[in-house]
Amino acid sequence: MNAMTSSNQDQHPAPSTVAVALVQMTGHASKQRNVETALARIGEAAAAGAQIVCLQELFAGQYPCQTEDHRRFEEAEPIPGPTSQALSEAARRHGVVVVGSLFERRAPGLYHNTAVVFDADGSTAGMYRKMHIPDDPLYYEKFYFTPGDLGFRAFDTRFGRLGVCVCWDQWYPEAARLTALAGAQIIFYPTAIGWLPDEKAEYGASQHSAWETMMRSHAIANGVFVVATNRTGPEGQLEFWGASFVSDPNGNLLARATHDKEETLLVECQLDKIDFVRTHWPFLRDRRIDAYADLTKRYLD
Fold first, then answer.
1. For the domain that residue 182 is a member of, what is the CATH number?
2. What is the pLDDT of residue 8?
3. What pTM value is reported for the model?
4. Considering its fold, how many domains does the chain have in total?
5. Is 89 a catalytic residue?
6. pLDDT score, position 137
């Protein structure tokens, strides 16, 4: 799906400030319970003043990739499908933009980790398929997901132009840069990241710090707001570390959730700050685009 045309952009003058809600949840075995909880939290966030609501990665189920289990493919849905339609209806009913992360069944044997942006009228503003697919202990995503083929994109909505990347994408400056160059004012990262029990004591604080620091650096380097919405609590062998957060274009932490509780953060993002920051730290202006061709190579031998 393509981003809206300029005529559509004229219908939605960019607001100077938007209220963003991050819904941090613990995944349960019951898909119905997870979806109903997410829909309720969307409604609560809208009632509290949210204009954009971001759910965590693969919110409708427990994180499926801790083992390589063919039965988990049964959890996937086509898009549109029941869960995406429920999110679309929630966006329309409450007049909010919703960012929802879904286990997409595209075709037999072809599955993606996909985020959909629903505009405040319930229409689909855009779709992003996760580009970077990890294969680590308890994160066996290459077994489940085909790498995305839609590229790095941004989508016009009633409350601003939004980009979405998903979890493992958050470690790659190239992904953030290209999403920002597509015009994103806010980059959303629906996320499922946590600690392995035998690593937490020694490495836990460092791992969490690296994760947050990486995304705050994307905010600084690109002059955008960054929103990361993570899962929380134990699922299987993982303890998801929560700590969903919002960073402004200077890398300042505007809000951070707790590590171990379900909660919804509501954060105001002043979008007119983007131009101010970019004219004081003109990183986009000073890029040497004539000298970056080697970035398309795997390594400079």
1. 3.60.110.10
2. 43
3. 0.94
4. 1
5. no
6. 93
